[in-house]
């Protein structure tokens, strides 16, 4: 990293953090481009929701496996160029989807998009770790997570608005072209986002890949899988579950899901400030996830007036969001020098694993007519994540 004056550091940090937050926004935005169009695509191509859901399964499976490989590519060739390629692949995939003549074209589209999505966590965290002042690191991680949450919240609104105005095909092409333009913008920011290839560092040269899979790193992977198992289920099924357990309308249930995501984004901002001021990241995680579990159990099992349902949903989102910067700081503490891309790529693939399994489990619970049990399942998964978080802290102290 080139020398920079102390007075210029806040601007440099702010520029890097905002650019990477924007990149993460684009990643999560593309996650939810196709799902709002499923009812239209079902009629257009004469397929069922199982086939349409399979598109997303292919996407997350490709992303999960690709994320591990992407970590090595990031550490070998540098994160900036890899990040630009990832954004461009996501944009290209939507342009192709807008031109698709049949359902089957969406499967290779999902593979292309999954490969594009796989680069974000190893590339983003490598850039933030290398380019942001350590005293602002947790806040940088919190903005990164906020960007992702806002991307999820924005996608359905933008996709449906464009589809209503121009048709679904034109909507996908417009979104895809916007992704390509954004990739070019990120490419032009080399002065702020370039990181020296970590393979040049003697601390990491020649280190066998298996050496990175230490006990702390494997426990981090388990933590991410447990959290995703719980929270991707909430995010995906809250609109379906709330009308069954609290008897609210589908419209109000959809609004509650948006409020959950907004609460998560606000929580991540507060959690970043807190995580920069204390080393007790495991305690922040424990308090946040315990509280979120309690709120979700109340929603699942207690008859509540609609205002309280909304309040509890917002508080659950805030509590979960507040833990994300501490989670990333714990992974950073467990990461060997020069291996940020590899480690974050591996542990974040746990999110893809949890996101793949959660719909199967909660879908099965719903098929058996026990919607309240879905909230109990989420609470148990959060409790397991708390136990794993304390395990990470213990292992890091030993290493």
Describe this structure in words.
- The protein is an all-alpha fold.
- It has 15 helices and no strands.
- It has two domains: 6-195, MFS general substrate transporter like domains (Growth Hormone, Chain: A, Up-down Bundle); 209-398, Growth Hormone, Chain: A, CATH 1.20.1250.20.
- Helices cover 80% and strands 0% of the residues.
- Helix 4 (79-98) packs antiparallel against helix 6 (120-131), helix 10 (215-245) runs antiparallel to helix 11 (250-275) and helix 13 packs parallel to helix 15.
- The model is unreliable at 198-208 (pLDDT under 50).
- It is globular and about 55 Å long.
TL;DR?
It is built from 15 helices and no strands.
- Determine and state the CATH class of the largest domain: Mainly Alpha
Q: CATH topology of the largest domain, anyone?
A: Growth Hormone, Chain: A
**Rg over C-alpha atoms, rounded to the nearest angstrom:** 20 Å
The domain count comes to 2
Show unreliable segments. 198-208
Largest sheet: none
Protein name: MFS transporter
Transmembrane segments: 16-34, 54-74, 81-97, 103-120, 141-162, 168-187, 217-238, 250-272, 284-302, 308-325, 346-366, 372-392
GO molecular function, one term: transmembrane transporter activity
Organism: Agaricicola taiwanensis
């Amino acid at each position: 990293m080139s020398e920079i004056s102390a007075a210029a550091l806040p601007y440099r940090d702010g520029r890097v953090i905002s650019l990477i937050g924007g990149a993460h926004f684009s990643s999560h935005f593309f996650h939810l481009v196709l799902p709002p169009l499923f009812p239209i695509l079902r009629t257009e191509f004469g397929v069922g929701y199982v086939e349409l859901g399979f598109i997303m399964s292919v996407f997350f499976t490709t992303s999960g496996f690709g994320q591990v490989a992407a970590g090595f590519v990031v550490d070998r060739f540098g994160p900036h160029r890899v990040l630009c390629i990832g954004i461009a692949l996501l944009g290209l995939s939507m342009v192709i989807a807008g031109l698709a003549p049949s359902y089957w074209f969406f499967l290779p589209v999902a593979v292309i998009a999954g490969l594009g999505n796989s680069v974000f966590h190893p590339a983003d965290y490598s850039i933030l770790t290398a380019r942001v002042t350590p005293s602002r690191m947790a806040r940088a991680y919190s903005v990164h997570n906020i960007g992702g949450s806002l991307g999820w919240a924005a996608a359905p609104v933008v996709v449906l608005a464009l589809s209503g105005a121009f048709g679904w095909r034109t909507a996908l092409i417009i979104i895809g072209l916007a992704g390509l333009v954004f990739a070019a913008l990120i490419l032009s920011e080399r002065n702020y986002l370039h990181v020296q290839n970590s393979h040049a560092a003697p601390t990491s040269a020649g280190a066998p890949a298996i050496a990175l899979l230490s006990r702390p790193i494997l426990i981090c992977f388990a933590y991410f899988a447990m959290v995703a198992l719980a929270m991707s289920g909430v995010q995906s099924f809250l609109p379906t579950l709330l009308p069954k357990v609290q008897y609210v309308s589908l419209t109000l249930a959809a609004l509650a899901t948006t409020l959950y995501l907004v609460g998560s984004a606000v929580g991540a901002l507060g959690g970043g400030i807190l995580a920069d001021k204390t080393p007790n990241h495991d305690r922040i995680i424990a308090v946040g996830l315990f509280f979120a579990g309690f709120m979700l159990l109340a929603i699942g099992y207690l008859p509540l007036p609609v205002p309280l349902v909304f309040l509890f949903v917002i508080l659950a989102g805030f509590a979960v969001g507040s833990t994300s910067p501490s989670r990333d700081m714990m992974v950073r503490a467990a990461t060997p020098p020069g291996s940020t891309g590899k480690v974050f790529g591996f542990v974040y693939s746990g999110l893809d694993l949890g996101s793949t399994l959660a719909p199967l489990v909660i879908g099965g619970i719903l098929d058996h007519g026990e919607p309240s049990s879905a909230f109990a399942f989420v609470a148990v998964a959060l409790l397991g994540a708390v136990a794993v978080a304390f395990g990470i802290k213990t292992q890091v102290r030993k290493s």
